[in-house]
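Encode chain A's predicted structure.
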Amino acid sequence: MTPYQRWTLRTEHTSYTVRLSPDGPWAELDAWGPHGAETGPSALDWSRRTHFITPADVAPAEYLPHGLRPFNGADLIASRPGHERGTWWTFAGAQADEHNLRLTFVDDVLGLRTTLCYATVPGTDVLHRWTELTCTGTEELRLERIDSAAVNVPVTAGARLTYLTGQWSQEFQRTQLDLARGTFTMGSTQGAPGHAYAPWLAVQDGTTDAAPAYGVALEWPGNWHITAEAEPGGAIRVRAGRVPHEGAVVLAPGATLTTPRLACAFSPDGLDGLSRVWHRYDRHLAGDRLRRTRKVLYNSWEATGFDVDAAGQLELAKAAADIGAELFVVDDGWFTGRSDDTGGLGDWYPDPEAFPQGFDRFVGEVRGLGLDFGLWIEPEAVSPGSRLHAEHPDWVYRIDGRPARLVRNQLLLDLGRTDVQDFVIGTLDRLLGTYDIGYLKWDMNRPPTERGRPGAVGPVDLDAEHVAGYLRVLDHLRTAHPDVTVEGCAGGGGRTDHATLARTDVVWPSDNTAPLDRLTVQHGFLHAHAPHVMSSWVTDAPGVFDPRPRSLAFRFVNAMCGVLGVGADLRAWTPDQRAEAARWIARYKEVREVLHHGEVRLLGTPADTTCGVQYDFGDRTVVAALSTGRLDGAPLVPGRPDRLRLRALDPAARYRDTATGTAYSGAHLLHYGLPFTWSADHDADLVVLTRQ
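Encoded structure for chain A:
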């Protein structure tokens, strides 16, 4: 038998080994796990188990086209007229070092070159995978499936899938499924990752959260899918990629299509350990901007809605400054024609009636209070009655001869057009160049429905072009306005993916700010993303979504688990409430570095009577603890407190509570935990421990 050709890529703590199968012209996974796991026979070697199935279908293949893999799901479906029977490639060479690998396969009959690409991410346990497809023939190719990669996970006792589901106002709900046989798929065709699923999946061997965990996340803010198949050989094979608009993409002769990157991660420490791998990756994506302090934000939306005017906004800004906020953001309603959600979008000029002394003076007065200034904008949207739509009706998505459908009383601009991109860039440059704006909240509140481009010749890859336009504008913001902090939002958490996170500073996980609902949203979010990108507000309770009461302390401790913001109507707060808020904000500023840069451990779940988040950074450990039980003025169990067992502390060290002076041994905190005696007046706490 011909010896295997074999390549090993190494991340900080893991290795990923690929081999070229002697049984056929494809690459397959040999080992994936901690350093050293690649030594010894492969746990995925099924070469002698191919009865009544093809070798390609049973192999832990890294990527296979329809043709070589006819029965189980293929990762690539490509054809040209007269050659609809699949792709049959041969290996054409490799380029490799310890951190990068490129494996090339060719089909000279079809006229296709496929290169499987791998790259480790420095300082993390994340591996990028993507595929480059080049038309080498003289005729165009039709690509119906263009997955980025396939990931194989060996399992022995069935697989547990963990993923994040929901809907608008209930995003990032941690959901689990035990998959012994069959296929599970999730995705979005809404032109964005969407609210129903996040483009993130974890796979474990067995049915415990502590089992070693493998994860994938697709870096694509457009249409996508992730599919997990429990294959007959016993492994789970995960395929992920973008979903072509209208079913296919046409590849012209000489052209190359590069798929989105699929980030692949592994942790031997279960879901909790995998979350820290993703957090480190988010910090890597932030680059130098990670060191930028995430300011305490006040946003006026829930206080004023569309009723925006200079006097009312300044009243709120003064109240926000008094409690310690560092940034004031004017949300929707600041521009001409925007008295409600039926008009104004696209005409991005401050309303002179709302700011009679000029918007520049208003911004200056906010800054005179010691606050940075931010503004909400929805650059992809346009109102039918706006001047922009009257001048450029061809800029919106629509299909000739078909009516345009209004969603949220608005249409969507075709951001795949260069002229539309230039308009958006010009609008942002004008606003950021004219006014002293340090923060921009980018929102998107409707999916593309009648997704056509009038006058377009031939097939157009509208989804990919919109994504490219969106990323081009964000890249421009980064380079032309590097000091502006950018928040990503899409009706809440509808566009949260690593391509967006690489170009923004924070994201808005959900429009739902109700305390207990938000606790569940944030618990799921922190499985996939880091606290320094999670914008979280304190709002009035009971609020719009959730009538269940929780104290102001609960709302602050919950919001402090990420990037603290306030969205309540401070004008209605009592002096005591404002004083308490000021104390919480001051405490947050003292530990903000720990919260945003520390190692995170999720303590329990919102289904428990007490849950929390532990942050470790240097000699400090911060624990945000929250009571989820029904409180009637007495302890949950009379005379006995609830406890949160901490993790990863030094058993021999001593830890002192900076508020009470109580000292604990690390062993005590690991074994017994921190005690919390809850009551109706005390349903949350923030404990800061210093190692002695």
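The two ends are 62 Å apart (CA to CA).
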